[in-house]
Design a protein that fits this description.
By secondary structure, the chain is an alpha/beta fold. It has 18 helices and 14 strands.
Length: 429
C-alpha cells in the first residue's frame, strides 16, 4: 500500500520505517528540512536501538523515502498517518495545534478518497474534530475517512514493540476505513481490536495512566516499606506472582518520566474533568510520582547532612535506559535542586549527554562513572543503565571522598554495597 506519515519524531520515524519494512511504500514527511536531510543521508536523528538498520533497509528497497513536501506526501498515498507532537500545555491539556495544522494541509491537498489516521496521542474526540474540520474545509466535496490508531511502543524498544505488538487498536467510522486499516496491518500477527474513534482514543490514555498508576502504587508501597523495615523488591515479587497483578511496572524508584506518562496522566485528568468527571485517583498518581524526587533527596541529605559545597556524582540522566530522551526526566528537577542547594554536580550518561547539555548546562559532564565519582561525596543513580549494575564498587569507593551510594532505581544489592564499605540507601528497601 502507499502510505505517508506526517511528522518524523519518535513515533513517526518508527512507524514509517517499520511499515516500509513489512512491504508498504512509505513517504515520511516533516517540515524540518535539516531532519529530512539527515534522514536522506541514512542517519537517524534519534537514538533508538535497531532503527538505523530498519531505515537502511527501507532506503535500499526504495520503499521508504523522506520529503519536506506534505502536499506531495498526501497526494501520493492512500493512507495518511498523523504523528506530529502533542506537547503538554501549562494546564495539562495536550497542545493539538500541530495536529490541527496538519489536518488543514491535508484538507488543502485532498483530491480524492484518503484515509487519515491519527496516531499522535490526542485527547478523546480529536478524531471527530479532524473529521469535522476537513469536512468544512473541503465543503464535503471530497470523500475521506478518519481513523484512530494509538501507539503503544516504548522508547528504547520501539522497533521491537512495533514489529511484535501485543495488540493493534483501530478506531473507525466506516467499513472502508476498517478494511484499509486491516490491510495496513495484515503483515502483523496479533489481535486487532476495532472500535469507534472515541473508544480507541480512550484506550491509549487509559492504558498509559494505568501503567503510571502501577508505578506510583509501588512507590507509595516503597515509602511504607522504608518506615517498617520491609523490602519493596520482595513485596513486588510477591504481588507479581499473582497473575491478576503481574510483576511488570512494579519497580520502585525516583518515578516515571518521559514524553508519555507525565503528559498523558495530566491530559487524562483534564479530559475527564472537561467531561464532568474529577479523576482524583490520577491526580494522586502524579503527586506521588513527583514526591519520589523528595524521597531521594531526603536519603541524600540524611547521608551528607548538608548539600552546600558537596560534590554529587549523578549516574544516568535519561528518563530510562536505552534512550537519549531527556523529556520530563526526573534527573532534571533533582539536579536543579542539588545545584540550587549549592552542590557541585558531576554527571555521566552513556548516550543522553548531547540532549542533557541543553537542559542541564550547569553540571560537569564526565567520561565514565568512575570519572564522575572522582572526589564525590555521594554517587546518586537515577537511570538503571545495565553497565551501572556491573560497576566495580571497590574501585568506585576508592575514587570518592565519602563512600555514599544513593540508588534511585534499586540497581545494586544493598548487602554487596555495604560489604564494599558504602553507606547505601535505595528506594523502599
Ligand atoms: C510508555 C508506555 O510503556 C508505552 O506503551 C507508550 O506508548 C508510551 O509510554 P515509554 O515512555 O517509552 O513508554 O517508557 P516505559 O518503559 O513505559 O517507562 C516509562 C517510565 O516509567 C520510565 O521513566 C521508567 O523509568 C518508569 N518506570 C517503568 C518505573 O519507574 N517503574 C517501572 O516499574 C516501570
Amino acid at each position: 500500500m502507499k502510505l505517508s506519515v506526517i511528522g518524523t519524531g519518535y513515533v513517526g520515524l518508527v512507524t514509517s520505517a517499520c511499515l516500509a519494512d513489512v512491504g508498504h511504500e512509505v513517504i515520511g514527511a516533516d517540515r524540518d528540512a535539516d531532519r529530512i536531510e539527515r534522514l536522506r543521508q541514512g542517519r537517524s536523528p534519534i537514538f533508538e536501538p535497531g532503527l538505523e538498520e530498519v531505515l537502511a533497509r527501507g532506503a535500499a528497497s526504495k520503499r521508504l523515502r523522506f520529503t519536506t513536501d506534505t502536499v506531495e506526501a498526501v497526494r501520493e498515498s492512500d493512507v495518511i498517518f498523523i504523528t506530529v507532537g502533542t506537547p503538554s500545555l501549562e494546564s495539562g491539556n495536550a497542545d493539538v495545534t500541530a495536529v490541527a495544522a496538519v489536518a488543514e494541509t491535508i484538507a488543502a491537498s485532498l483530491t480524492d478518497y484518503r484515509l487519515i489516521v491519527e496516531k499522535s496521542t490526542v485527547p478523546v474526540r480529536t478524531g471527530e474534530r479532524i473529521r469535522d474540520q476537513i469536512h468544512l474545509l473541503t465543503r464535503g466535496a471530497v470523500p475521506f475517512d478518519v481513523a484512530c490508531n494509538p501507539e503503544f511502543t516504548r522508547e528504547g524498544a520501539a522497533v521491537q514493540d512495533f514489529m511484535h505488538p501485543d495488540r493493534i487498536v483501530i478506531g473507525v467510522e466506516s467499513e472502508r476505513a476498517e478494511r484499509l486499516m486491516r490491510d495496513v496491518y495484515r503483515p502483523f500477527d496479533c489481535p486487532i481490536l476495532v472500535t469507534n474513534l472515541a473508544t480507541a482514543e480512550l484506550i491509549k490514555h487509559a492504558s498509559n495512566a494505568f501503567l503510571a498508576m502501577k508505578i506510583s502504587y509501588i512507590n507509595a508501597v516503597a515509602n511504607v516499606c522504608e518506615r517498617v523495615g520491609a523490602d519493596v523488591g520482595l513485596v513486588a515479587q510477591g504481588m507479581g506472582q499473582d497473575a491478576r497483578i503481574g510483576r511488570a511496572f512494579l519497580n520502585a524508584g525516583v518515578g516515571y518520566g518521559g514524553s508519555c506518562f507525565p503528559k498523558d496522566v495530566a491530559a487524562f485528568v483534564q479530559i475527564a474533568s472537561a467531561a464532568g468527571y474529577e479523576f482524583g485517583l490520577l491526580k494522586e498518581v502524579a503527586r506521588i510520582n513527583e514526591g519520589q524526587r523528595d524521597v531521594l533527596l531526603r536519603h541524600l541529605t540524611e547521608a551528607l547532612w548538608v548539600l552546600a559545597n558537596r560534590t554529587i556524582a549523578v549516574l544516568g540522566l535519561a528518563y530510562k535506559p536505552d534512550t537519549d530522551d531527556m523529556r520530563d526526566a526526573p534527573s532534571v528537577p533533582i539536579i536543579e535542586r542539588l545545584c540550587r542547594d549549592g552542590a557541585a554536580v558531576r554527571v555521566y550518561d552513556p548516550v543522553a549527554e548531547r540532549n542533557a547539555r541543553r537542559v542541564l548546562p550547569e553540571v560537569t559532564y564526565c567520561a565514565d562513572p568512575y570519572d564522575a565519582a572522582r572526589g564525590a561525596d555521594a554517587v546518586v543513580l537515577l537511570t538503571e543503565w545495565p553497565e551501572f549494575g556491573r560497576l566495580d564498587l571497590t574501585r568506585l569507593r576508592d575514587v570518592m571522598r565519602r563512600p555514599v551510594l544513593i540508588d534511585g532505581r534499586n540497581v545494586w544489592d544493598p548487602e554487596a554495597a555495604r560489604a564494599a564499605g558504602f553507606h547505601y540507601a535505595g528506594m523502599g528497601r
